[in-house]
Amino acid sequence: MIRRNSGTEQVRAPKRCLDPERKGAAAARPSSGRRAFAGGTLALAAAWALPGCATIEPELSRSPPPRAPDDLTRLRDGGPDPVVAGETLRGDLLRRFYAQRGFEPVWTTRPAQAAALADVVLAAGDHGLDPELFQAGLLQRRATLAPLQRDMLLSHAVLTYAEALALGAVPAARRRDGEALAPDPVDVARVLDAALDRRDPAAAIEALAPATPTYEALRRALVQLRDGAAASDGLVADALARSARGIAVNLERQRWLPRRIPPDRVWVNVADQQVTFYRDDQAVFTSRVVVGDVIERKQSPEFRTVIESSLLNPPWVVPRDIVEADILPRLERDPGFLERHNITLLPNGEAEQAPGPESGLGAIMFVMPNRFDVYLHDTPDKSAFGRENRRISNGCIRVENPLQLASLLMEKPLGAIHEAIAEGGTTRKPLPRPVPVFVTYQTAFATADGTLQFRPDFYARDAGIWRQLRKNPGPEETPEPAPEAAPAVAAATRPSPGPRSTRRPQPRPAPRLVEPRRR
């Protein structure tokens, strides 16, 4: 409001703002036909000082002229994936990162951080990763690129490297169906954005990798094996190099696991043909197991879930594929097979074996919902556990001492488990709390005392993973732990204890009472 007082004009803010469409005209209208130059200046100053009601001249309210189109503006506008020196970069990853920075260059004002992060990416081999997966060659000659392309290249290299550490370089979508382990999701764009404000951003990226004793032991052994291969020749060098590739594959498998391993868990290593129950991160039960046959449709998959209950005296519901592949051909040779084994063919093409001493699932099965219909269970064929090669099941895990495991999981005396089974009938006994279970396939791993162990890759899975860990794998590069590498592997240093966690996977919905499909 403007009013005259003793020949001069005074300016006072109105009690409420004017209508936005009339604000300019009302603020500019003088109280009389005459106005002193000083009074007009004072009025203009007052308008700038009142942000809620100030009048902005049309020319001052115009948006800045649009930036000339470049890779970042095209990225912002949803354009195609950018290409730098012939390398196509992932637009989705870059878009998420630069959106947090207003689609402006990031590294021109952070040269020290840029150099440190570039060095981390170039050392990806320490994690068993091929640096060329992250444009290492181009990154080394980034000084020859235009500033904006250099900025995007470094961002992309760090983001994809961070993603490989956090989630694995071979995501589940690019693996075979039975390799279903995966860590919890991580938004690496947010991680890198937050790391920019830290004193050591490279450490924040490296912290995305697992910190388990096995991961640390594998990394140390990898360095030793590579050094040994470089200092050797002939068959020894080849053997050490193959073992190093096997370690790289198992480092990748470690990256598929959650970063916080539950302290109470059942852990099956199919490659080791063994199950271990950990309580508070201490092994309290270990048993031999029978695992899936090497035929692909019978192989035991890799996955995690929870054991919810024990099923006493379980029937075996035989899936259609096993009926067609195994039971029907057997019937042609042995018409009395079904009757002798208490098996009934069902109208839907499945079959069911009644519970009893000779049931394929034995006296107990552990209910652990999963899409593979794979379970831990008992078996009447105890002689199989004396074999070196225990790869004879249809995919399920047969446990040598399942009642001892049930006693620990159910927190009941072993005698009580025997009594419950002796009562007969199929009965579900819920566990006091769900227990996480991991079915893994680790052909190289560290024991509790830090000793590195190799196991045969009898499912031939390592080679497929190895090829995806290389930008351009050679045909002769196949991972294969070899006896010649044993001295170098044994020299691996002992790992220090890694961080532990109590986080548990969320329980899955309960399945039907008659659940088993494979054995």
UniProtKB/TrEMBL annotation:
Biased segments, Basic and acidic residues type: 68-79
Region of interest (Disordered), ranges: 1-32, 56-81, 470-519
GO BP annotations listed: cell wall organization; peptidoglycan biosynthetic process; regulation of cell shape
Record InterPro entries: LD-transpeptidase_YkuD-like (IPR052905), LD_TPept_cat_dom (IPR005490), LD_TPept_scaffold_dom (IPR045380), Transpep_catalytic_dom (IPR038063)
Keyword field contains Transferase: yes
Highest taxon listed in the record's lineage: Bacteria
Residue stretches making up the L,D-TPase catalytic domain: 264-417
Pathway(s) where this gene product acts: Cell wall biogenesis; peptidoglycan biosynthesis
Active site: 377, 396
Signal peptide: none
Sorted UniProt keywords: Cell shape, Cell wall biogenesis/degradation, Peptidoglycan synthesis, Transferase
One of the record's GO molecular function terms: transferase activity
Protein family membership: Belongs to the YkuD family.
Name of the molecule in the record: L,D-TPase catalytic domain-containing protein
Organism: Falsiroseomonas bella
